[in-house]
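We were asked to recover a plausible sequence for a given structure. The inputs and outputs are reproduced exactly as logged, with field labels preserved.

PROBLEM: sequence recovery
POSITIONS: 167
GIVEN STRUCTURE:
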């Protein structure tokens, strides 16, 4: 163990539009991986939406189903991003560019100088992203979309965990 201060992130907030499809799935998968790595008590993992339609709602049944099929339980309830998130989380990961733009706007309007969180696109952590850095919104599509999203989320969360385990 070194006495150097820790530089790896300790907290992450996954953000999409509604906080019922993509970001709760990422939250659940990352919690599972962190638990398997024995890091569950050290990390803060959460998700939120830029929109307010689904505050208090459970995840979309299609996200719950795809997660369950892979042995992951989704326990989150919908909430909207707030200014304090930009102070409280080390990393805020947007599922698509529209989410990212909204987050930048919220940060600039509400959180300003006190915003310490790093804001990134989640798929920057997906080794198979191949330049396409968005997790597509599956809400209006068929159930197959949720399998695609799950695969992206799993790949991204595995890489993300390595970032958290750096030191
Ligand atoms: P999410 O998907 O952003 O992945 O949670 C959506 C969920 C709900 C809506 C849009 C996207 N909606 O319009 O209610």
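RECOVERED SEQUENCE:
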């Amino acid at each position: 163990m070194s006495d150097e201060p820790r530089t790896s992130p300790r907290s992450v907030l996954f953000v999409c539009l509604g906080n019922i499809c993509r970001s709760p799935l990422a939250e659940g998968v990352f919690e599972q991986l962190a638990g398997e790595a024995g890091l569950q008590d050290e990390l803060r993992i959460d998700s939120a939406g830029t929109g307010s339609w689904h505050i208090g709602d459970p995840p979309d049944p299609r996200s719950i189903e795809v997660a369950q099929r892979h042995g992951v339980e989704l326990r989150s309830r919908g909430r909207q991003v707030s200014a304090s998130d930009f102070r409280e989380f080390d990393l805020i990961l947007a599922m698509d560019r529209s989410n990212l733009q909204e987050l930048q706007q919220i940060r600039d309007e509400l959180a300003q100088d006190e915003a310490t969180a790093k804001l990134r696109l989640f798929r920057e952590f997906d080794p198979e992203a191949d330049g396409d850095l968005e997790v597509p919104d599956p809400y209006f599509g068929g159930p197959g979309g949720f399998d695609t999203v799950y695969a992206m989320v799993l790949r991204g969360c595995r890489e993300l965990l390595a970032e958290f385990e750096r030191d």
